[in-house]
Amino acid sequence: MSKAKTKPPILTLSPEHEQQAIDKLKRLFAERFELELGSFEVAEVLELFTREIAPHYYNRAIFDVQQHLKERFESIESDLWALEKN
């Protein structure tokens, strides 16, 4: 596989979490698809997902947090209006 310029992953895992993810993916490929892949091949799959798919989940999480904070700030603003003296 030739390596063209690829963008760096938006998220990185600690070595321990990366190894756990590799182990889980190896089990998934073996149990569900009867594919016995080595750690190197599975690490490539993990890198692809990290680089190409994880940003979509990351951005969605940011959007969800923004919505939650917006609702929370509106609630706080309403509470402050209720405390205001005439």
From TrEMBL:
Superkingdom: Bacteria
Cross-referenced Pfam families: DUF2164 (PF09932)
UniProt-listed InterPro entries: DUF2164
The protein's name: Uncharacterized protein
Species of provenance: Pseudomonas viridiflava (Phytomonas viridiflava)
